[in-house]
Amino acid sequence: MSIKRRERAASQDQATSAKRISTREDPPTSSVWRPSSKIRDRQWDRLAIVYVRQSSPYQVLENRESRERQYALAKVAQQFGWPADRVLVIDEDQGLSGKFSENRNGFQRLLTEVTLDHVGLVLGLELSRLTRSCKDWHHLVEVCAVFDTLLYDQDGIYDANDSNDRLLLGMKGAMSEYELITLRNRLERGRDNKAARGELFLHLPIGYVKSPSGEALREPDEQARGVVQLVFDKFEELGTAWRVFCYLKQNRIQFGYRCLRGPKRGQLEWRRPTHTRVLAILRHPIYAGAYAYGFHRPGRKNPVSGQVEGGKWFLSPDEIRVLIQDRVPAYISWEQYLANQRRLSENRSFPGAQGAARAGRALLSGLVVCGRCGHRMNVGYQPGKTKKPHYWCDTHLFEEREQPCFGLKAPPVDELVAQQVLRALEPAAVDLSLQAATDIKRERERLHQHWRQRRERAQYESQRAERQYQNVEPENRLVARTLEQCWEESLRQQRQLQEEYDRFLAETPASLSDVDAERIRAASENIASLWHGADTTPQDRKAIVRCLVDRVVVHVDQHSEYVDVTIHWHGGFTSQHQVVRPVGRYTQLRDYDLLITRIKALHQEGKTVPAIAECLNQEGFVPPRRRGAFSVGTVAPIMERLGLVGELYRDDLLGPNEWWIRDLATKLKVPTCKVYYWRCQGWIHSRKTPSGKHWAVWADDDELKRMEKLKALRNSYTAQRNPGLVTPKARKG
User: Which pLDDT does position 701 carry in this prediction?
Assistant: First the structure.
């Protein structure tokens, strides 16, 4: 072999070796490494973007090696030939999951740069760092193919326009998404398996703490436990979560929270109560000793409306996924928990529910039941200042049929039930006074116990701050000054609490005085005056009624003012009653025929209208709306419709162009006395009726025109000086 041939073979071997090295797509590990042949001048002229992402804040803090490896890709881009100032690092998506791209601003920025034709190479440690969604991944690959942008991960460089690379990228994207699904399923099944054993305690509610072994224990702090127990006791007494919240707020009672995160994790912190927290305590099954998992239904987002549908905060016991009774220490029994849920359900303002006692004047709201259809009747109030209540049934509106049920005004039924309730309470007046005194004493003792615990806690905090200050070295003023300030702050809070406790003692003594006990005894002896007292609110009256009455069934007849009322008392006893309601028309009165017959009989006896009205009142007849008694104004229209009227109401007694004086005065718009004056002066034609009691005057069109001019004159003296105006026209016939 000649020397030239050997040089040509050596040069071919070197070219083959250089080509083999140049096609490597791994990061450089030796000084002989050269960039891939897939990178061309077009890519070098644009940016190289390094995308950095970690899925959760925990990974950002703990998985430091993965973070360093991702940031090291900037040096890889420089070794590929990009200057340092042409390498862009996007790390805005730290702590965000790659399942979705909507909330990842860094990923959206990456897509924007690629579509603007600014990017030649996208670098990521692995494809799962870019995205774990096939939709987002294929969209990125498609955009890179359109704008001739290369992709790089720890396995090599990919050209989206190359068929083999495109196939490999698609498989890697599917594997990345499936890997996320596999990890999530593995974690969820492990979580569900632990929850099925009743051992999964993520966040325990108020009143519970987690032991080092993972068990749920009752709150070791006595005051915090007492507040939780107070919520259940007051709910049993007051009946609604809102009234319990108002009671806690009025007495400045706070909840003891265990901090779940932060520097004070696990420490007890006192916060003001909220209505949502009170409701959560009443609904959580753990307070009845039951382990519950899955009592929240998250719901799904509707892609059309964008609203979350199908979610529910607290499920009923039948719908909870895992429910194990007698698993944790309890505050109440399971029976009491179920009773609380029924009461909360009844308090809701839904059709068919009893509803909570509210401030309206209707005494039986939520208790009145229609006797025809069996549904609860609604409560309505008239507009205006009076706001008179009434009960009405609306079942026909939902069943698309004619109205078979009718309502009634509330006062008749309310007064009946109030009388029956007061009559039932009278025999137990003495027992009620003793029970009221006992309840007040127990309530005050509970409040004073809570205040003593607060004072004891404040004293402990001040003593603890003092010990910390005493234990520090006097020379270490940097620490001593801070501890001294903490000690002074604790002493100030202790003094402020003591002042509040003194004011509380002045307003609410620890025990009942003799005067208070006598007032309670006197009030219980006269329950009626206590019922109608100004200090008794509608909620108080409704609460008393609901303690005794289960429901009130009313049978309303459209053609009668009498209503049959059945009171169903707690315990199974029922009582039948009848009340009279105001109706709108005379025809709705049950004794309408008897009323008409009696009016006709009195008229035949020759009685006047005032005498007929007085007789009807004496015999017990009442007008439809029950507004007072019969009078001339109410009897006269009835007699007119019946034809039982006097001559003034009989137009058949008038001849052609004849008027009653009252009607003529109305026609001319003058006082009736003026027409009477004209008749007395002979300025108009007139005649007496057959009875001789009334006058009928004659006036045709010409006479009406003359009278119009006559009424315009100032006085009778002026009229007498105009003979043409005071002389009536000759009457024909």
Answer: 86
